[in-house]
Specification:
Elements: E1 5-8, H1 14-25, E2 29-34, H2 38-50, E3 55-59, H3 65-79, E4 84-87, H4 104-134, E5 142-146, H5 159-179, E6 185-191, H6 197-200, H7 203-211, H8 224-235, E7 245-249
Parallel strand pairs: 1-2, 1-4, 2-3, 4-5, 5-6, 6-7
Helix pairs in contact: 1-2, 1-8, 3-4, 4-5
Bound molecules: NADP nicotinamide-adenine-dinucleotide phosphate.
Length: about 260
């Protein structure tokens, strides 16, 4: 049967929405998760349904244990399977503050959402995936973590974000190693500068860096659908002999140039 099921965290807006729509266009069923913006989540689901996809919306904070359980339980109750988890939900610090002044509160909030939450959500989903494989209900399910160029690029005004994304790199390697024996491949997609609400506060700065300074060899903003296409390539099984792989979707930002 076709209808494979993807959970995409933080898919009411931005990159998550782009991922949901790309999967929907490839006949995936989708679980749209959001934290607080219900109207945006409904809009995303409607857009997915418009191209013929099935889906549900599950509100929940990825940093909250009970909400993690709710997300997984609701998915299995409705679809009885999960073939893909995309750990996309992520936040920057509420205010960019030099790391000499950064607060523990901001550090804890960013790490809980970007790293600890995805780690334990993955643990929950991976356990379910193993059972689903053993019961013959799914084959080769996959996990995708949305990292960032901030994993290796220093921005002292948002140190907690950079540290969280560096952690996502190691998390990807660890889950890839642990889950390979079950046939569950784990990937990281590392977006560059993508046009979403997250980057809207620094739009002018990035416009200049991209257009005038050529910070990316491909001189344009990335779009959520650029990430969506990469997720679809993974979801559709086009990288079967790769796991723990980091896929840069960044217009070439990561290239070292002279
Ligand atoms: P965004 O436009 O701010 O959207 C964030 C999404 O995540 C929204 O759907 C939001 O839900 C949801 N969300 C936030 N915190 C959540 C939580 N605790 N639990 C559940 N959902 C939560 O951000 P984005 O630019 O699309 O970023 C998505 C991911 O890509 C993040 O991991 C980010 O670090 C990464 N990334 C982004 C860029 C970029 O340039 N934009 C670059 C590299 C990496 P609500 O609508 O309910 O608020």
């Amino acid at each position: 049967m076709r209808e494979k099921v993807a959970i995409v965290t933080g898919s009411s807006r931005g990159i998550g929405r782009g991922i949901v729509l790309a999967l929907a266009e490839h006949a995936w069923s989708v679980v749209v998760n959001y934290r607080s913006n219900q109207a945006a989540a409904e809009n995303t689901l409607q857009a997915a349904q418009f191209v013929g996809a099935k889906g549900i919306i599950v509100q929940g904070d990825v940093a909250n244990k009970e909400d993690q359980v709710k997300l997984v339980e609701a998915t299995l109750e409705h679809f009885e399977r999960v073939d893909l988890l995309v750990n996309n939900a992520g936040i920057g610090p509420r205010v960019r503050v030099d790391m000499l002044e950064a607060s523990e509160q901001s550090y804890d909030e960013v790490m809980a959402t970007n790293l600890k939450g995805p780690f334990f959500l993955t643990q929950l989903v991976a356990r379910k995936m193993v059972h689903l494989i053993e019961d013959g209900k799914v084959q080769s399910p996959k996990i995708v973590n949305i990292g960032s160029i901030s994993a290796y690029t220093s921005s002292p005004a948002r140190a907690e974000y950079c540290i969280s994304k560096a952690g996502v790199g190691m998390m990807t390697a660890l889950w890839a190693d642990r889950l390979a024996e079950y046939g569950i491949n784990v990937y990281e997609i590392r977006p560059g500068i993508i046009e979403t609400d997250l980057t809207s506060v620094v739009k002018d700065k990035y416009d200049h860096l991209i257009q005038e300074e050529g910070i990316t060899p491909i001189r344009r903003w990335g779009q959520p659908q650029d990430i969506g296409k990469a997720v679809v390539a993974i979801a559709e099984g086009l990288l079967p002999f790769s796991t723990g792989e980091v896929i840069n979707v960044d217009g070439g930002f990561h290239l070292t140039r002279l």
